[in-house]
């Protein structure tokens, strides 16, 4: 035991950079443990990064894209500052510390929102530190790559175990029937985690056994089947769609994986079919879930076309605590949120309404004769309030306006051009190229416009996007 400790200590002393790499590769674990541990991990890593970089932070020239990202953070602060000043001008200085009366949970005072916009710069600091540490060859992304692959396969096995036994390996019971959550407990976000890191597992296995065709084939098929079944057992529909989309992209990426993917999909389908057919209760649950998904799509698109182009039908319903009459249209909740985001954006089209402002501004659309509980607007048919619009781009639009969205589109355009120009280099068979490919695929699935999301400006989502984005921004070193 003493000898082991001595060797470990000697290793760290001989390579002092090892410690910061260990801290960096703990980020996938921190997403398991929650926002507290994620913030602690972020603070420790940034502290160590500043220590290693010291004066180098001011000497290294930054790429154009990094300057554009900084501009986006400045726009967030500017939008919140304008909102803060407007409150002082129209309502008085004492109003900046008071939370709005037209909403309860999820609301912040103008001062809190301004402070949060300042604290948001910590994510930009994280990006700069990762970028510069890689530039001077201190940070090794391969440890993060391995960590993401390990924890995603560990979670997948845990989810499959929980589905069949009703509790996971730590004894955490299933919170909602037929919706495995694994280590996340009551939070139903396991499917999202696997989309974020699952392709790290697939590409890591392909790279590890790249010279052993038979072993690579078997191992990759098993990994895809395990990941696919685990995501399916979470009951999260969007991760299932995104996982299939990710496999579809890999299928056409010329990585010589067509046979592997086809066999994996066939085996996964057989296993899931057997699981569903052997449990009548689970089969009924999936049938109902599928029906609700089809109805949601129909409500969002088909009936909306019928209403707008062919007259359609709205109907009046009498109800609510106040007993008032309100109009209901056949629409999904997400569509209603997106329409609300567009309405709130119109309050300030250029700069937006400031960080964390959506719940407050959507409350301004309500009429006095309709109860807030029913979330209906007599002058805006079928709008809906929430803490955020459940889509990154609508959230950026309503909180940072046209300026913020324009900067995001500029960043997206640069990203697309980069992928097109470097695709032949990215798909080459070495560890750095596989890391870059996994990061590109994961980021693409995370920021797809046509999907529901959490809030962009939460610790969990912002940290993940910055981590993956910083790997892509370090492509010059990775592609050497």
Give a summary of the structure in a few sentences.
The protein is mostly helical and 480 residues long. The chain is 68% helix and 2% strand. The protein is globular, with a radius of gyration of 24 Å.
Written account of the structure:
The chain has 480 residues and is mainly α. 68% of the residues lie in helices and 2% in strands. The chain has 20 helices and two strands. It has helices spanning 2-14, 17-25, 27-33, 35-53, 56-59, 64-91, 110-119, 121-135, 141-165, 190-208, 213-233, 237-251, 258-277, 280-310, 333-345, 358-363, 392-426, 431-446, 459-473, 475-478; strands at residues 315-318, 325-328. It has a two-stranded antiparallel ribbon with strand order 1-2. A hairpin with a 6-residue loop joins strand 1 and strand 2. Helix 2 (17-25) runs parallel beside helix 9. The longest helix is centred in the last third of the chain and has 35 residues, at 392-426. The chain starts with a helix and ends with a helix. Mean pLDDT is 82; it is low at 1-8, 301-330 and 367-379.
Write down how many β-strands occur, each being a DSSP E stretch of 2 or more residues: 2
Proportion of beta-strand residues: under 5%
Overall 3D shape:
globular
Structural class: mainly alpha
What's the helical proportion of residues? 55-70%
Mean pLDDT over all positions? 82
Runs in which pLDDT lies below 50 for 5 or more consecutive residues are 1-8, 301-330, 367-379
Main β-sheet: number of strands, strand sense, barrel status?
2 strands, antiparallel
C-alpha-based Rg, rounded: 24 Å
**What's the tally of helices?**
20
CA distance, first residue to last residue: 41 Å
């Amino acid at each position: 035991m003493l000898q082991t400790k001595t060797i470990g200590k000697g290793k760290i002393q001989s390579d002092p950079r090892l410690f910061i790499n260990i801290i960096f590769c703990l980020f996938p674990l921190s997403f398991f443990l929650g926002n507290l541990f994620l913030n602690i991990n972020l603070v420790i890593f940034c502290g160590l990064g500043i220590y290693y970089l010291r004066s180098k932070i001011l000497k290294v020239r930054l790429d154009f894209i990094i300057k554009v990202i900084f501009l986006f953070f400045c726009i967030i602060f500017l939008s919140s500052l304008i909102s803060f000043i407007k409150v002082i001008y129209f309502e008085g200085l004492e109003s900046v510390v008071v939370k709005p009366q037209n909403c309860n949970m999820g609301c912040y005072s103008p001062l809190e929102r301004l402070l949060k916009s300042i604290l948001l710069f910590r994510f930009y600091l994280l990006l700069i530190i990762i970028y510069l540490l890689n530039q001077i060859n201190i940070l090794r992304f391969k440890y993060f790559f391995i960590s993401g692959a390990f924890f995603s396969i560990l979670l997948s096995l845990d989810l499959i175990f929980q589905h069949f036994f009703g509790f996971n390996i730590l004894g955490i019971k299933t919170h909602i029937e037929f919706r495995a959550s694994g280590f996340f407990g009551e939070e139903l976000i396991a499917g999202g985690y696997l989309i974020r890191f699952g392709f790290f597992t697939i590409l890591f296995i392909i790279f590890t056994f790249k010279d052993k065709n038979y072993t690579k084939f078997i191992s990759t098929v098993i990994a895809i089947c395990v990941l696919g079944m685990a995501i399916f057992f979470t009951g999260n529909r969007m991760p299932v769609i995104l996982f299939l989309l990710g496999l579809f992209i890999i299928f056409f990426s010329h990585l010589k994986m067509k046979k592997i993917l086809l066999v994996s999909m066939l085996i996964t389908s057989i296993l899931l079919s057997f699981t569903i057919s052997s449990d009548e209760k689970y089969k009924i649950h999936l049938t109902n879930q599928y029906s609700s998904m089809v109805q949601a799509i129909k409500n969002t698109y088909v009936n909306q076309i019928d209403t707008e182009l062919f007259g359609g039908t709205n109907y009046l319903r009498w109800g609510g605590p106040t007993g008032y009459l309100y109009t209901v249209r056949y629409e999904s909740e997400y569509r209603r949120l997106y329409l609300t985001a567009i309405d709130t954006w119109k309050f300030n089209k250029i700069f937006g309404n400031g960080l964390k402002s959506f719940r407050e501004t959507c409350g301004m659309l309500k009429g006095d004769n309709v109860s807030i509980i029913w979330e209906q607007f007599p002058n805006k048919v079928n709008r809906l309030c929430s803490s955020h619009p459940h889509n990154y781009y609508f959230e950026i639009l309503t909180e940072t306006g046209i300026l913020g969205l324009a900067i995001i589109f500029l960043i997206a355009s640069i990203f697309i051009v980069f992928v097109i120009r470097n695709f032949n280099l990215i798909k080459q068979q070495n560890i750095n190229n596989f890391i870059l490919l996994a990061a590109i695929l994961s980021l693409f699935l995370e920021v797809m416009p046509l999907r529901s999301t959490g809030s962009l400006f939460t610790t969990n989502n912002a940290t993940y996007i910055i981590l993956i984005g910083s790997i892509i921004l370090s492509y010059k070193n990775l592609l050497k």
